Structure prediction request, 478 residues.
Amino acid sequence: MTRSLLLTLPEIVLTLGALFVMMLAAYSGDRVSKIATWMAVGFLAVAAITMPGVTNAGGVGFDGLYIADSFAAFSKILIYIAAAASLLAANGWFARDGTFRTEYPVLVLLSSVGMGMMVSAGDLLTLYVGLELLSLSSYVLASFQRRDTRSAEAGLKYFVLGALASGILLYGISLLYGFTGSTLFGEVNQALGRDGVSTGELFGLVFVLAGLAFKISAVPFHMWTPDVYEGAPTPVAAFFASAPKVAAMCLMVRVAIEGMGPATFEWRQIVIFSALASTVLGGVAAIGQRNIKRLLAYSSINNVGFALIGLAAANRDGVASVLFYMAVYVVMTVGSFLCVLQMRDEQGRPVETIESLSGLSRTRPGLAAALAMFMFSLAGIPPLFGFWPKFLVFNAAVKADLTWLAAVGIATSVIGAFYYLKIIKTMYFDDPAPAFEPGRDRINGAMIAAAAVFVSPLGYLTIPYLGAATQNAAAALF
Prediction:
């Protein structure tokens, strides 16, 4: 038991941190919200620091329910970085209109606990508990601005559709348990390999993957994403587009490889369909969008499709390419949303229309340059760093004899490039719209600068280190 508790040290740290911040909120109220935010970031940092020790001591805890390996450690570090960025971004955003409450960092910490359980799950029930802890926190975060109709609507839509997805997932888990006799990934794997994939197990596999596809916003379970991203407060949308996406994608990788390895032929068909549909719809549906947050929502759907191409390879290089893709995706997406946070008119009111970016290069050249770099990088245009993860997933698909899938992925990436370039054209070639107010949040500006440097050609210098980390993490599943 002591060893198992040691393995879960990151989750213990975050749980105690959430309880401490909650008590601080109860006794001190919202006047300590800024301090609470920095404390939450500190707890995330402490949890990340404990990760190497957990991995070195690592293995399986609680009789197989929890797995602490390099795959989980890499995933958690990405999750904690995205969560910390969204916390710091929210601090300045909500403070402007006086709607920031100390419960916000508590909810982010609790959702981080759930995401940590997801990527370390060794059992279908651990998977479900972690996913629900994330979901319940997310529903509240989406409707955090209680007096904003759009925020309340986003929370309600997310809750209703999330409950449906949870039911689908739980039904799939029950089917797999009924036909394999276990909920442990290893034993499910053995049952599928020993007896072959029966019709009941196939249905269970489909329902489980459908429930997880909802969390990564993969087509056809993407319908909630544009509405929730548009209605939720922008820092919350930045959080939804980054940390939970990493957690759900890594969870899907672990379930597919560790839990359903012998059924690779069956689940690969589902993943390929979802990948192709996500890249096509994520590219086409974004073309007519006028709201920048809705456009970034379709962008996230599009990028999830590319990551699924790497998963379809079903080998070590494919898994490593997915992890590399999600690492770069987090920086590109968070950076883009941080730029949206800077979009306020002269009265300080948030502006979200793409038209308001017209002529931004003349009124805010630094902000325009950073947003252009994120758009070029999301489009995968060299020499920006966003090109490299796309190359890796396509290369993994080719090595797995899925050359046609890589070719279709390359073709659909051209569709997505259209609307990214449309934003750049609006900023640099259209007549100037009313200028945004000068940026006041230095922390936000510093994070934008850091993200821009990472997605610039200087990001290629990290390939030896990031590549080695992703390969090491992928090796834990094989």
About this structure: The first strand starts at residue 59 and ends at 61.
